[in-house]
Model the fold of this input.
Amino acid sequence: MKKVFEKPKSLTDVPFTYCPGCHHGIIHRLVAEALDDLGIAKDTIGVAPVGCAVLAYLFFDCDIIVAAHGRAPATATGLKRVKPDNIVFTYQGDGDLASIGTAEIVHAANRSEKITVIFVNNAVYGMTGGQMAPTTLEGQITQTSPYGRDPKTMGMPIRVCELLSTLNSPGYIARVALTKPAYIVKAKKAIKKAFQFQIDGKGFSLVEVLSTCPTNWGLSPKESNEWLEQKMIPYYPLGEFKEVF
Amino acid sequence: MVDRLLMRGNEAIGEAAIHAGCRYYFGYPITPQSELIAYMAKRLLKIEGATFVQSESELAAINMVYGAAAAGGRVMTSSSSPGISLKQEGISYITCAELPCVIVNIMRGGPGLGSIQPAQGDYFQATKGGGHGDYHLIVLAPSTVQELADLTIKAFDLSDKYRNPAMILGDGLLGQMMEPVEFKEYDINSIPSKESWALGSSHGREARTIVPFNLDAGEMEKINNRLKQKYIDMQKEAECEVVNMDNPDIIVVAYGIVARIVKTAIQKAKKDGINIGLLRPITLYPFPSAVIRENVHKAKKILVTEMSMGQMVEDVELAACGKAEISFYGRTGGVVISPVEILEEVKKLLK
Done:
């Protein structure tokens, strides 16, 4: 019988630890498929974050280091500078990348480090139990914005792709979602393009993936997908923001 | 070939690092070590395949070091007191991940933003861990520009040997002073291969991970036990200079630039008929406790002097095990102790 679908080779056999309905599993798969398709898994070094994806080192079948919270782009810089022929990617959440690691991501992008960043934005801190993230939407209720995010004292959610696209340096920056098959096809294309950008030595690449957190949003997986489409996409528009080299 | 050059201390560290095969430097400017980052920029940017990055912060610098060390690079960062505080989280990670690197601290007055003059107030931070968790750095304390160079090279070798970060603990005076320095031949081929553990391409082998944590308490304890064994093994590297220990009236214990000032005080004291012995720890971790213990009984009085409120004095007291009467004299805030002050203190104690 002809095999038409299988697990990507760049994923190990370790079962994912993510909650039902969470998009991390899909994102892991898309990254692994990109590594497979481009034939780069054996030359890739991943940088796992602090947060729900801290265990990513168990799931990807490539060399991986776990970085300190927010510092993945700096750690990736060190790896890539010593091993310029390897492909280096970071996998970071919104608290990691857009709050505690804001300086690192801005400057790695500004130096146009030849690394690829997979940025998972689910508008909440997952692993610590649902606190406000820099990307939490206006009015959104979290553990630390129990009456809703109030822009008067908590600021407005940060749009990372738009912010980084203002930098006058080479880069590929795109935002994707996964709530329907057509989006997933586009997401895979963007992730592959981001890695290709690095392979070609063009510079920094980042794909922001809008993601669900049913557990901390207090919604079912289906409701979470609907909430993402209705609330997140209008504020975080999908598309390619920058392709400069 | 041995070159003898007149160099500033900070620059001698940089040249020694490059001499020892260091090709990766990540740092952030801060007084009084800025000559070092400038020197690394000037040299490394002209060496093919080498990397110099002026990072966005000290936090970024130490995490770049973490990545570079994980990839098997011979890597260094440098800073001064407040900047070293910022690096502590990363240093703790690097120690847990058991990666080699060299960290230079050219100390200035503290606490807080402190002053920009020389001090030794970071002894506790350097020798007792500094960041969170149970760990130690290898800490070397040079007292001349020549030693800044020699110990920088040694720091790289010890760091590789134990897969543990090594720190050069100098001060603003050492970093800024100019002296002749020689760079002895160093065989770059003697640097241990990192192929068996460094991250990179995984063709023909299993994928590797470098993970500075374990969610299983028992497994995390095993990591701590392994580190502990390493610190026990390291004790044999302890080094101490012993000066003028033939029937001394008093023994002074000092490290770094202060030990050098004590040597001037020894000469001055001779004119007054006072014989001062000096014990100078060269490694601050591991601390040369055995040498201290063997020598403290040779005089009735022991004076520990530091440019701090009294930090190394605690290790001297532990080493002496109550077998000697130990006094302390210190200056802080960036004030440099003078030989005359030390002599006056000695005379006071001998009265």
Observations:
- The mean pLDDT of chain A is 97.
- The beta strands of chain A are 44-48, 63-66, 87-93, 116-121, 171-176, 204-210, 239-244.
- Residues 87 and 199 of chain A are 7 Å apart (CA to CA).
